[in-house]
């Protein structure tokens, strides 16, 4: 009985949401991502780790085609979202980004009110039929981002007036409000204190139930705490990819071992 | 002579530089690091004191001496011809100057020749005496710096101190000039108001402008100095100009900053800015000779009567002139909106247009507003285009197809007309002062808005 449940759980979570094959990224002449293959599971948290400049953010930005906005950036290879090639000619990157949301390394609230920051996505995509529904979406998103209690009395205040950690949680709330299927988070906790970090990690764990989450982090502990799968990047290569506990307890590549034990970085 | 003096002092000061620098090295036997100040600073200090003292003496001594000579000559003339008025005496003196410089005098005569001869002999003494004194002063100052050179002499601090004072002096000159101009504007404005018996409301709200038609013995008719038609004309042309400049400039800026590729931007931006380099006089005759007749003919063919000096022609061309202003300032503020904000919007699945309309423009709005305000203050003060392309008669109308006149046009007409300057100056200065107040208010508003906007991102 126990055994059976384990198997069903495994097969369920083994469903592949995003499949990347032979992805190369160039910034002009810089070869930032080198022939990366990776399969990201549905309704699971995948962590990207690796030393600074190894291409984690670059690869993350390939998944929602944010690299399109950089003139010098060139992406080749295949990335499939639910079996659909996201770099195909007929795919609208704008629609793709509504399905694959993103939280950035540096908090970037719009110079609008807190409410409007969160309502921005739902308004654009017509997710609310009336003001009441919009209010509900805003409240729910801010609650899930663990910031509702701090801002509920000043929703009209500018989002730029919040502290760095509050801004970042606001940005997370803003991303959730659009109801994406996949949430890409680029070092979402780098500006947060331990308490806010714990709240965000809890949030990520909750999000796993309904979303696919990919998180870039420099904290080994965080990767170990929140993720089920871990990918280790080094100098643009995907060195090792597997279950998080495997990567952290028994890495197969010596570079991975050196990195997680703090010898390269 | 002044020219020669200038270079003589420069040569002396340079010599002081070399001497003091070499002495500084020699004092420590070449071990420069033992000096408090590097040898260059010793030289520089010597140069500064020599040049400043020398040039100051050149101007002060030369000036005072010259005034004294003039006074003495005037006294001589008055003594020889006790009955002449001071103005006639000055005429005689200027004739004597002309004769002395072997130029053409209005009259000649023994007295004039005598004064001219005195002037010639004085002027030689004056020139060489001044030069000698200045050179002496420079040499002494240079020597002072030279003889003070020693290991512990703080030449660096002293020279930097002097430089600081020079900079402060220049700032004071700039500020005093501004204050002087504003004060003279205020003074002449008050004079004008006194001239119309303090009926300021008749100037501010009157609708009849022909200030020079009712002049009696320098006294203006308060009923003919109503400035409303001028300000209405200025307003009308400014509005037309902004209707042309704001959309074109702003949309061009949006295109250049967010849509154009780097290659388009590389040539389009300088091309737009080239517009700003066209002298306004060229815009003026473009409006008067090309656009105005074109508008009139086009109007005729559709049955509209358009004046050949219409507000429309002047306004359109002025708008074209202001486009680069709006576009390059707006482009700067739009570019200053951080890329991370755009990324945030794209990351939520917004299109480029949505991102620009809902994130970039609101963020850049204060900067754009201040760009528009600066553009307006340019338009309000613009002169050449309206002198050539707008009308001259004060005409209170809101119809852009008619001729209107502007504040600046009236100032030009008052000053360049053949009415006596003392009468025409009053209304001209007053108009100028009013214009100055309007522009100042607008610039202050623009700067405030920009400052607020800076705080948002820094
Ligand atoms: N916009 C860009 N233009 C040119 N080169 C870039 C650009 N962005 C990133 N790169 C280069 O691509 C490489 C990978 O950068 P990336 O930002 O993906 O690293 P990262 O792993 O996210 O680093 P970090 O942990 O410091 O965020 C680096 O060598 C970087 O210099
Ligand atoms: Mg990064």
How many strands appear in the DSSP assignment of chain B?
0
Poorly predicted runs of 5 or more residues of chain B: none
Topology as H/E string of chain B? HHHHHHHHHHHHHHH
- Count structural domains of chain A: 1
| CATH class bucket of chain A | Alpha Beta
Task: List the bound ligands.
Answer: adenosine-5'-triphosphate, magnesium ion
Major beta-sheet overview of chain A: 6 strands, mixed
Mean residue pLDDT of chain B: 90
Parts with pLDDT < 50 across at least 5 consecutive residues of chain A: 1-12
CATH-level-2 architecture of the largest domain in chain B: Orthogonal Bundle
Structure classification of chain A: alpha/beta
N-end to C-end Cα span of chain A: 45 Å
Oligomer: heterodimer
How many distinct beta strands of chain A? 10
Order of helices and strands of chain A: HEEEHEEHEHHHHEHEHEEHH
Major pleated sheet of chain B: none
- Could you tell me the CATH topology label of the largest domain in chain B: MetI-like fold
Structure class of chain B: mainly alpha
> How many distinct folded domains of chain B?
2
The gross shape of chain B turns out to be flat
Number of helices of chain B: 15
Question: Top keywords for this entry?
Answer:
heterodimer, A: 265 residues, alpha/beta, Rossmann fold, six-stranded mixed β-sheet, four-stranded antiparallel β-sheet, 11 helices, 25% strand, globular, disordered N terminus, B: 458 residues, mainly alpha, MetI-like fold, 15 helices, flat, binds adenosine-5'-triphosphate, binds magnesium ion
Characterise the protein shown here:
The complex is a heterodimer of chains A (265) and B (458). Chain A has one domain (16-260): P-loop containing nucleotide triphosphate hydrolases (Rossmann fold). Helices cover 40% and strands 25% of the residues of chain A. Chain A contains 11 helices and 10 strands. In chain A, the strands form 2 sheets. In chain A, strands 6-7-8-3-9-10 form a 6-stranded mixed sheet, with helices on both faces. In chain A, helix 5 (131-144) packs across helix 7. The longest helix of chain A has 14 residues, at 131-144. Chain A is globular, with a radius of gyration of 19 Å. By secondary structure, chain B is mostly helical. Chain B has helices at 2-27, 39-80, 86-100, 110-148, 155-195, 200-205, 228-259, 262-277, 280-301, 311-336, 339-347, 352-381, 384-389, 407-416, 421-457. In chain B, helix 2 (39-80) runs parallel beside helix 5. The interface between A and B is medium-sized, with 29 and 21 residues. The structure holds adenosine-5'-triphosphate (ATP) and magnesium ion. The site of magnesium ion has 4 residues of chain A, from helix 2.
